[in-house]
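Table S2 (text version). Query chain:
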Amino acid sequence: MEYKIFGCKVNKYYTDEWLNSEYLSDKKGIFIASCVVTDNAKRKWIKFVKDTAKTLSDEQKIYVSGCWAFKKGEAQDDFFDIYPEIDFLRGKVEILWEKPEELKKEITNSKEERNKKLSDIKNKLSKIPQIYTKKFLLVQWGCDSFCTFCLTVQKRWKHYFRDKDDIVEEILEFEAAGWKEVVLTWVNLSAWGLEHTNDIWNSRFAELIEYILQKTEIPRLRISSMWPEFIDDKCLEVFKNTRIYPHFHYSVQAGSSKTLKVMHRHYDGEYMRNLLEKTKNLTREDWVEVSIGADLIVGFPGESHEDFMDTFNLVKDGLITKVHAFPFSAHHMWEWVPAWKFPNQVNDKEKKERMWELSNISDHVRDDFIDRNIWKEFEVLIEVVKEEENWKIKWKGWTQNYIEADQDTFEITSGNIVRNQIVKWILK
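Corresponding structure-token output:
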């Protein structure tokens, strides 16, 4: 079955599960992992579904999962009422729930029952269409925090987390199949182990990372986007381990304390700046410079120019080296978020201007970061290898600190160009 993935790493995890599920094993068509992070994303979905439907044969369907398809983790019964633009495709579009039924059952199985399935799971892994060389591994679902800009919480619903032995078991299975990198992913990843995501003073995230490092030998452990309030000094100490990918992505959203308060975040601007500084200054045994990514929202209701500059300066000061920014989306089309009703909405012209300023400074900071790393040696995980007609091999991979590597930017020092191999290269 063909597939199309949009949105976050959670969708990448569930795409593998759905493509190998019993339910879709005899189905024909295309599987879509959807996203509703902004109104613009929703518009793209409607167009994509309409365009795709025109290409399908009579026996094929569009199978939709992801945040577009469900509410509280279950298939959305009123889907076609919310999106009447595609009501005419009722017979061609099937709305799926969050995860395959067999995956739901595996969560409740005892450890003994899971162990009995080990050989079947390993056989399944060998057949998985590895979209990437890395394994996206969910360790936590949902969120209880209800930030005023967020629609995802209405879709994925309440927080719960996997047992750490269950997490380790899946990593060991992936490791045994010969793969090299696991990406821990999330809805509110760093809240792992807590009763709810508002319990910000009792972080257990370091406990999980330490346990994985002790029980597995996977060469690369990458941590996906983290909520900053759960990252304490214990976490930062664990992050020095050289098996952990030194690119730490935080769900920052804003640098202004006033804006963060209206967003219902659990921290203020001073806390965020201090955490970014501590992360930037981590000293690791491999001496790789830490890369810091961040999600940033521009033009949140009531954001003044001074508020925006608090966010802008986090980037300008070199505390964020990989920016993922987007203008605030009111979500007033179809489904909505609380902040769309807030007073003092920022107009589109101002949002565009601020986005341009932030994009411009982030490009400069990113270029400076890469320039500082020229002539340094890195370990690169080869992810894509293509042989062209002139026998030239083209490849692509990533350094430990999230610098994209290819044959034009890196010079080999040791290792062979083979997919899923970690080799040593010098950035030039």
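Notes on Table S2: The two ends are 41 Å apart (CA to CA). Confidence is low (pLDDT under 50) at residues 105-111, 114-119, 124-129.
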